[in-house]
Fold:
Amino acid sequence: MAQKAVEERERVVIRFAGDSGDGMQLTGDRFTNATAMIGNDLATLPDFPAEIRAPAGTLHGVSAFQIHFASADILTPGDQPNVLVAMNPAALKVNLDDVAKGGIVIANEDGFTDRNLEKAGYESNPLEDGSLDEFHLYKVPMTTITVRALDGIGGVTKKEAERSKNFFALGLLSWMYGRPTEVTERWIERKFASKEAIRDANLAAFRAGYNFGETTEIFAVHYEVKPAPAEPGTYRNINGATATAYGLVAASARSGLPLFYASYPITPASELLHELSKHKNFDVRTFQAEDEIAAANMALGAAFAGHLGVTGTSGPGLDLKAETLGLAVALELPMVIVDVQRAGPSTGMPTKTEAADLLLAMYGRHGESPLPIVAAYTPSSCFDAALEAARIAVTYRTPVILLTDTFLANSSEPWRLPAVEDLPSIDPSFAERPNMGTEFLPYLRDENLARPWAVPGTEGLEHRIGGLEKEADSTGNISYDAQNHQWATDLRTAKVLKVADEIPPLEVDDPSGEAEMLILGWGSTYGAIRVAVNRVRDRGKHVARVHLYHMNPLPKDLGEILRRYRTVLVPEMNTGQLVKLVRAEYLVDAQVFSKVQGQPIFAEELEEEIIRRMA
Amino acid sequence: MTEGNGQRGNGQPTGVPVELSKKDFVSDQEPRWCPGCGDYAILSTVQGFLPELGVPTHKMVWVAGIGCSGRFAYYVDTYGVHGIHGRAPALATGIATARPDLTVWVVTGDGDGLSIGGNHLIHALRRNVDLKILLFNNQIYGLTKGQYSPTSEEGKVTKSTPFGSLDHPFNPVALAIGAEAAFVARTIDNDRQHFTEVLRAAANHTGAAFIEIYQNCNVFNDGAFAAVRDKQHGAQRNQIRLEHGKPIRFGEQGEKGVVQKSDGSLEIVDVEAAGEDALLVHDAHRENPALAFSLAQLAHQPTGPTPIGVFRDVRRPVYGEAMDQQLEMAAQKMGRGDLGKLLHAGDTWTVE
Structure:
């Protein structure tokens, strides 16, 4: 057999799509790991339905996983797949519009039965009727070949054999893009060690897929994507949920405060609870509370008791925690609240992304109850953002909201591992003795306007704190005095603003210095904005870019930066929440580029928007 | 700074004798309840009792919710938090679970603990978090000036129910037993001796303890508990004082008693007619909560013969302890957490 041709590609975007029971997330995950191991830069985006098992074969049961990998630095999971793997007609129908014209469609021919075609609403079989002529279509009877390949493996039923077809697809794509097989084989062996028959079936299916690519004449070429240049260091692949969890564990280790994480199950924040509950050997207490409000109160109680109190949730849960956050503002105790934002209002689209809780985080409490907000911007930045949120919380004795979103939580990228000793250390500096003669004043303030944190068990510092207005500079005793409330309110505001003293100057990306338009970003739009801005520059235009990490208080130099540009465009996965903030704060006529479709903003649409607005 | 978890504070002496007196538990804040409020008596009894625990004031935390009872946390000179409406059991769960070495008491009321915070109360009880929960039941919303509460009797005329309340009330003791609380008791604000005995029993119980206190609100609901609280209204006749291991009998001469019928339900009888041997012997340590529940149901409302004392006192695993054990086991099995190792776990690759 002649050696098949190898073509080099700089970047590839593959989307694996199938029924939610087809194992597409797993297939994507494994492909990602093999890709990471050979040193491609990568970004991933899972997209799955809210229903655990939607009726098989239907459009709303389609689950997909997209990976973008390249031999160059990449920043997003990619706008348009070049390759779509479709396990059934519904997967094809839901995803085909996104595929670049001329792209590759690999279809599991066996999935295109009359019944499945009908369920997906096809009147004729798209694999046969010429409707896919604009694509390179590969029809592969994956199920049949898988079942045949597994013939002779004892203890595997036909149904189980059919279920291994995702490993066949993984094997085939691994061949097409030269992914190392050992990584995947090792994983299968480890994962299914206790179920021999399933292990052997999956291994056989994976190898069958690989060999099918190599031996059949359907595929004439395969591709090579060389490793991307990267800074020296040790890397791993990480998604935002895991990075957030590790960041919290790191904050605990770097502060010496035991981590207490209380939360109530909610998509997509439950992943944090799952991850943290594995790490009890780090003195991590995880508590699945009876509801969102309880979770917030437990975290606050733990903070009072001297732990790093954290609660995590998504939008609907943040609504419920609001009153407790107000209490935390009044008590002035350190606490971190993670909000993994999702599409709303109400239950909305629980598995889809959005970033529309910024104003809720800023203002969603009664009275004047300001608190600092940090927003992660890439999956791995969730690690740093969690540490930063904890640092601010402990230093300033305040609740801090950490905003991430569904996209960040689920998508992954290579992460250059930091050295533990390089991570910021956090000093809880508990109060240990009276601070006013022989007296202890729980609201006497330090240079950061922070009050002492005296934890129960400390002799002589017994004190009572509560939600009632208090003498906010000394005793903490209840006070309904008119002037005191004015003063206490101003003080709480000033304390949060004080955080800005420590925020480093913003990095404005404006290489030519000739840009008249500034793209102001926050949160997970980071990658798309960078790519779009680079492409606009490639088209010979000047555009500047700056990205926010601290959302409250805003960096001190932001106003001056915004005023330097004639146009400020803010891409947001909401209808313009940061726009409202900067307009109110700086009297700048910022404009929004809004996208609320349950999907991240894509570089291409932003690029076109920037060009359109320049015209 | 945070103390280790070696020493438990379930209210029992910590081993180091600490000489404390009532004034050690009196804070510099002046109590501000209405003159004649039952809360004054409760505060005084509690402050008088606490020294005998031998727990130093810095190892004790009082947590309260919102309502007249909520102010309690400001008046006891220990660590204290006055939280938000209904959430004190959750806040206290965070404290007690993080720090099993602390002694944590919770103060709540019938509105705070049974209405807005009902969920937290039942979950703290079923988990058996090491909390001593005092529920001041005055059958009315006092701080908001007189609306009916979840323990107000049906037909109650208040500002929010001028035509009478339609709500069927909770029986707090029955609710706690229904949640399988391991320790459930009832006492009365003005009976210092009985109240102190119940507090002692609760403090000696390891795990969650729930005490309903009949508390008179002399402004908005005066006399709600007169039948069991006030001598002139026949309190001696109506108090059924439960004592573990003793036949349940009551009345000025002990002429009434409680028997269990063949269908399992309880009935009040004349001792003379039924015979002393027929009387039910109170067993607070019985695992099955059904009998304790039946006792609670003897008087759904405190208008006639009503049991007071310890209904139930059984041992169950304690939440905070169990969590500490899990952490210790994890550390033994997996080794103490090493952040560097955690970050490098799984598949990594190195770029030179």
In short: Chain B has two domains: 22-245+283-336, 247-281. Chain B touches chain A through 62 residues (CB under 8 Å).
